[in-house]
């Protein structure tokens, strides 16, 4: 076969055409790009191995130009056509020539540097083709040739992104080669140095290579190089090089040896000093953030300053559960150190790699939690308990058989239904006094009355309140001597707080039983709280505040001599917990609902605070309530709560702590106010043991920090997580409500049961009295539908009690709307399901050490009496065919804004899964959405968009799910109220207060009345006049007090906070969905990014 003469010139002709077309705009067309790419591939493939590649440099050169002009689309076409493999084969073939063509090698690596990032399997292909060693050997031979060095490094950077390749390249000496290329500050070859640092950083993600770098003593070298670049790059033109060096250090310090080498090389001081010098320049924030991340990672883990993480207080249980955390707590051998593990530094944990798919993991975990068993999404058809066992609960439902034959309707006051009152106690109770308060702060408010103390009253030595006195323990009939002793000036708040009475509160405290046997009363609970009239905005986050706090923590390690480390309050020394040396703040938490275990003075105006675990538990540190005194006016105090457990908090998104000033209260302003500056929540260096972390090692606690400047000398101030509402406060409110009862109200108060701690659990029955004893009236009275309400199963969710207070006050009110509501329903209310937890300052558990809202499936009458008997009430109602129309359990939410509901829906649960179900299986009445829909229309704090009706496996033992599943109550809800504030409606941008919470409780009542009209419209056709009353009520409650006008909408828009709720990039997210607002961006973009990078 004779080849045509023009065949030998075909490559030349094709190349000339390519060169001409390369500059033409028509190559932007994808089809033409494919044709040209195909021609290039054909040219490459026709250059046989035995043929001298005369035109290969031109082909590769044209390929490079085409890819440069065409961008990512042309690279993608080349990859899809198999171009990567051909280029790698060409590289291998070219390397076999000796000497290899420098021009060809330069062009091939330049093309591969463009193709590699677009080919997901580039690293694997390069390894299988043997290209790794070709590039490494070429690099070794051309260390002094910057022109060839740059494309080689660019290709190696892509190679190293594959973890297997990184290990192989490390064994081939690439790590040592990189340290020959990088060096101190120089204005030459900066682009090359940047690529070399990126390549080294990718290599050091391998733990093997990181250990190799440590063994070769490269950590001090990196620190020296970083210092040199920091010192000489005065105009900050080479920030990317400095960031590349920090990236290498960040990857090395992912292993234990790297962290140790970093500390030995004085890395903490070096990065701290360089970062401090960078602070004034905003553009250097990426360097500061990465440095902060490295320093936090390398900060030596400290032991939490406690002898044990178990609670200071202990309550012996009647029997120990067979399994669970309480059983593990009791089976723990004596002498075991439960504060810190022996080896708490997990060498195998690479925090950065664990977080790459954190969002996917969290979403996957949420989907896995959804119930997929349809049989469990249906009500039970058989009763769970024999009716004979439930008959004893008939005594709590006298209204269902009441005939009122002995009731005098002409004189209703003569037949008041007596409430069950708790027995009185004669224990000594210490209440606040005016003795010791400075005389230059006289009260400016009218006094409610003077309270004199007994002659022998003396301050308790352990108290830190200013000279409290003893008023309890006086024998009946004994006369008090008012000539001596201190006089307590109580602000006159009777008109503003009709349900509060200081004397009555003290009487209630006397009958309250606590494990520590508290004998003191806190000022705020004694004085009462009047909601402020001013608005309290969600706090705007100051840029860099968290970084500043972290740097101050790092200073403790760098300048240890500046740290006082003086314990000023310690409940573990119960004989004398308060240290009063006249130079430090005085702390106290020995009162009802108080929680503070230890206070340590770190610097003159800075204190580390440690919270107490729930009793019979070793965790749940969130609720706090403590007293502070002995402060200096104008001094910037910083308080750090150092053993928080949740991975994030609304304290990062505008929530403030609550403070109550006694001087302000005596001055006529008795109120809790949102306060605190520079608030943030972040992971700290205190180690959390595997015992406390559910078996996980290497975990840390979190710090909630805030700064405070006090305005009054010799003041006594209280700080709390949220507005306190004690068990004694509830008892006082119930007695006051009974005293304010009108003849039209049927009110009965029973004690449902006694708790483990010996406190009564109140049960209220509220409805309207019948107008007469006629059969029609009595029949209507007995057959009203029931509404069952409960609250405060979690002691730390005090907002639930304030919502319940609003509900109770509305139900007991005299308005036509309240009377109509009472005529429509019988209300059964358990206002506090966990009195013991509330009394003893727990956050989550009862004295059994368990979350009572996870015990509804099989509650124990001995360990969970309030849940057992409350469930029994509902089972009794179900057995007599009187299951409630609505069940709602009031809660508080620490990670969401607004008020919202969780309900139960078969359809909405199935829709979230991949299970198949027939239309018959999914038949469901949509009435469960009616009540939250009504609330979204009338309650400004309520958000329908935040509601969820999906049933999760982890919630199958909660009240909401059990009442829905076992009692068949379609409208079974948990109503969650934010601890922070709102991001929609009238209260958008405001922190929530007791006024708004009580309003929410009242609005819930109005919604129930609307629900009644929708379910039984004929019964209320004669009450049309109430429509105007209800509208007036809604308008009053929704009165605009902010520039953003509230509009009743059919649906709330969905929202998501831009800032991730994970306060630590390497920590887990909790598996409860977090909803927030796209507009709630209190962090600037750079601050938000930095939080995801280093400071969070």
UniProtKB/TrEMBL annotation:
It catalyses: C-terminal L-alpha-aminoacyl-L-glutamyl-L-glutamyl-[tubulin] + H2O = C-terminal L-alpha-aminoacyl-L-glutamyl-[tubulin] + L-glutamate; (L-glutamyl)(n+1)-gamma-L-glutamyl-L-glutamyl-[protein] + H2O = (L-glutamyl)(n)-gamma-L-glutamyl-L-glutamyl-[protein] + L-glutamate. Its cofactor is Zn(2+). Its main location: cytoplasm. The active site is at 976 (proton donor/acceptor). Its EC number is 3.4.17.24. InterPro entries: ARM-like, ARM-type_fold, CBPC1/4, Cytosolic_carboxypeptidase, Pepdidase_M14_N, Peptidase_M14. SUPFAM superfamilies: ARM repeat, Zn-dependent exopeptidases. The keyword Nucleus applies. Keywords: Carboxypeptidase, Cytoplasm, Hydrolase, Metal-binding, Metalloprotease, Mitochondrion, Nucleus, Protease, Zinc. Residues 1086-1096 have a biased composition (Polar residues). This is Cytosolic carboxypeptidase 1. It comes from Esox lucius (Northern pike). The gene is AGTPBP1.
């Amino acid at each position: 076969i004779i080849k045509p003469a023009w065949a030998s010139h075909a490559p030349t002709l094709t190349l000339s055409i390519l060169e001409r077309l390369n500059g033409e705009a028509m190559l932007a067309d994808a089809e033409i790009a494919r044709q040209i790419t195909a021609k290039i591939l054909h040219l490459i493939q026709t250059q046989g191995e035995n043929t001298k590649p005369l035109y290969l440099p031109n082909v590769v050169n044209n390929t490079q130009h085409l890819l440069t002009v065409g961008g990512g689309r042309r690279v993608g076409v080349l990859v899809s056509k198999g171009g990567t493999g051909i280029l790698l084969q060409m590289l291998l073939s070219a390397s076999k020539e000796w000497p290899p063509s420098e021009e060809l090698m330069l062009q091939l690596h330049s093309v591969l540097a463009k193709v590699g990032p677009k080919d997901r399997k580039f690293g694997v292909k390069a390894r299988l083709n043997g290209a790794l060693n070709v590039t490494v050997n070429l690099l070794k031979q051309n260390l002094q040739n910057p022109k060839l060095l740059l494309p080689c490094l660019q290709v190696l950077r892509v190679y190293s992104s594959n973890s297997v390749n990184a290990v192989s390249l490390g064994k081939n000496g690439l790590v040592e080669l990189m340290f020959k290329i990088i060096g101190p500050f120089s204005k030459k070859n900066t682009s090359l140095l940047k690529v070399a640092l990126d390549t080294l950083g990718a290599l050091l993600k391998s733990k093997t290579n990181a250990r190799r770098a440590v063994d070769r003593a490269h950590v001090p070298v990196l620190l020296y190089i970083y210092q040199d670049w920091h010192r000489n790059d005065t105009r900050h033109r080479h920030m990317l090089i400095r960031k590349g060096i920090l990236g290498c250090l960040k990857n090395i310090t992912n292993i234990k040896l790297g962290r140790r080498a970093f500390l030995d090389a004085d890395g903490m001081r070096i990065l701290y000093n360089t970062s401090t010098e960078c602070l004034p320049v905003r553009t250097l924030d990426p360097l500061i953030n990465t440095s902060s991340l490295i320093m936090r990672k390398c900060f030596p883990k400290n032991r939490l300053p406690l002898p044990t993480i178990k609670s200071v207080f202990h309550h012996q249980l009647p029997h120990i559960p067979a399994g669970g955390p309480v059983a593990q707590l009791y089976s723990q051998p004596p002498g075991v150190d439960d504060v810190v593990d022996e080896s708490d530094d997990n060498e195998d944990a690479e925090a950065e790699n664990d977080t790459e798919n954190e969002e996917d993991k969290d979403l996957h975990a949420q989907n896995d939690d959804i119930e997929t068993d349809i049989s469990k999404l249906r009500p039970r058809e058989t009763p769970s308990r024999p009716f004979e066992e439930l008959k004893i609960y008939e005594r709590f439902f006298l209204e269902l058989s009441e005939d009122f034959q002995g009731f005098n309707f002409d004189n209703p006051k003569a037949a008041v239904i007596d409430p069950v009152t708790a027995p009185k106690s004669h224990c000594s109770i210490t209440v606040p006094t005016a003795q010791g308060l400075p005389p230059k702060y006289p009260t400016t408010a009218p006094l409610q009355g003077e309270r004199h103390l007994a002659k022998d009253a003396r301050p308790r030595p352990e108290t830190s309140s200013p000279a409290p006195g003893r008023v309890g323990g006086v024998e009946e009939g004994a006369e008090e001597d008012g000539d001596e002793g201190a006089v307590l000036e109580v602000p006159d708040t009777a008109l503003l707080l009709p349900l509060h009475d200081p004397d009555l509160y003290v009487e209630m405290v006397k009958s309250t039983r606590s494990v520590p046997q508290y004998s003191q009363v806190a000022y705020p609970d004694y004085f009462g709280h009047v909601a402020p009239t001013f608005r309290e905005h969600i706090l705007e986050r100051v840029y860099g505040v968290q970084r500043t706090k972290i740097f101050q923590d790092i200073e403790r390690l760098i300048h240890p001599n500046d740290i006082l480390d003086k314990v000023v309050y310690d409940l573990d020394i119960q004989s004398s917990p308060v240290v009063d040396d006249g130079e430090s703040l005085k702390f106290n938490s020995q009162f009802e609902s108080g929680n503070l275990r230890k206070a340590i003075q770190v610097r003159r105006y800075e204190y580390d605070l440690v919270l107490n675990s729930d009793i019979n538990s070793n965790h749940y540190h969130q609720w706090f309530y403590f007293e502070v005194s002995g402060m200096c006016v104008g001094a910037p105090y910083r308080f750090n709560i150092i053993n928080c457990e949740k991975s994030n908090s609304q304290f990062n998104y505008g929530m403030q702590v609550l403070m109550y000033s006694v001087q302000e209260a005596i001055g006529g302003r008795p109120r809790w106010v949102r306060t605190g500056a520079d608030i943030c929540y972040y992971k700290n260096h205190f180690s959390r043991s595997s015992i406390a972390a559910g078996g996980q090692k290497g975990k840390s606690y979190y710090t909630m920090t805030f700064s405070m400047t006090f305005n009054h000398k010799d003041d006594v101030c209280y700080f709390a997580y949220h507005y306190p509402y004690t068990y004694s406060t509830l008892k006082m409110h119930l007695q006051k409500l009974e005293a304010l009862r009108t003849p039209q109200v049927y009110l009965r108060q029973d004690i449902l049961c006694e708790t483990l701690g010996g406190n009564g659990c109140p049960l209220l029955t509220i409805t309207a009295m019948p107008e007469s004893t006629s059969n029609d009236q009595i029949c209507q009275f007995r057959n009203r539908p029931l509404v069952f309400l409960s609250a405060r199963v979690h002691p730390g969710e005090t907002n639930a009690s304030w919502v319940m207070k609003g509900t109770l006050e509305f139900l007991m009110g005299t308005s036509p709307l309240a009377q109509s509501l009472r005529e429509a329903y019988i209300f059964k209310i358990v206002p506090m399901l966990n009195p013991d937890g509330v009394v003893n300052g727990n956050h989550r558990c009862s004295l059994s050490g368990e979350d009572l809202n996870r015990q509804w499936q099989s509650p124990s009458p001995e360990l969970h009496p309030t849940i057992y008997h409350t469930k029994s009430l509902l089972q009794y109602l179900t057995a007599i065919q009187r299951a409630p129309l609505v069940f709602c359990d009031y809660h508080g939410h620490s990670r969401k804004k607004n008020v919202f509901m969780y309900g139960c829906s078969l359809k909405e649960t199935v829709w979230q899964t991949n299970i198949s179900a027939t239309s018959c299986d999914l038949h469901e009445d949509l009435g469960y959405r009616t009540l939250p829909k009504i609330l979204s229309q009338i309650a400004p704090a309520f958000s329908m968009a935040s509601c969820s009706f999906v049933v999760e496996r982890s919630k199958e033992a909660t009240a909401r799910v059990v009442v829905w599943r076992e009692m068949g109550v379609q409208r079974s809800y948990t109503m969650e109220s934010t601890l922070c504030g709102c991001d929609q409606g009238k209260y958008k941008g405001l922190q929530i207060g007791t006024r708004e919470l009580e309003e929410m409780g009242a609005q819930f009542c109005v919604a129930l009345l609307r629900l009644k009209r929708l379910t039984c419209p004929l019964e209320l056709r004669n009450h049309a006049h109430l429509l105007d009353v209800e509208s007036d009520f809604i308008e009053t409650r929704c009165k605009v007090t902010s520039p953003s006008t509230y509009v009743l909408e059919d649906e709330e828009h969905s929202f998501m906070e831009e800032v991730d709720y994970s306060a630590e990039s390497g920590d887990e997210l909790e598996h409860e969905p977090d909803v927030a607002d796209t507009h709630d961006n209190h962090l600037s973009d750079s601050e938000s990014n930095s939080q995801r990078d280093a400071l969070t």
